[in-house]
Amino acid sequence: MMTMMVISYIVTWVNMIYAYVTAPTDVELWGEEIE
């Protein structure tokens, strides 16, 4: 039970960090396409 909570907690943090890292790159790519 406790292990599942820890795993879900870590997965949530990984997803947040991944989104934070990839978001700026996506914005730059969209900016280039629009121009």
Protein described:
The N and C termini lie far apart (51 Å). The longest helix is centred in the middle third of the chain and has 33 residues, at 2-34. This protein has one domain. Helices cover 94% and strands 0% of the residues. It has one helix and no strands. By secondary structure, it is mainly alpha-helical.
Number of contiguous helices:
1
| Structural class based on helices, strands and sheet pairing | mainly alpha
- Give the count of structural domains: 1
- Note the beta-strand portion: under 5%
Question: Runs with pLDDT <50, length 5+?
Answer: none
Shape: rod-shaped
Roughly how many Å is the radius of gyration?
Answer: 15 Å
Could you give the order of the helices and strands? H
| Most strands sheet | none
Mean pLDDT: 82
List the main descriptive attributes of the protein structure presented here:
mainly alpha
Spell out the blueprint of helices and strands.
Blueprint: H1 2-34
Describe what is shown at a glance:
It is built from one helix and no strands. With 35 residues, it is mainly alpha-helical.
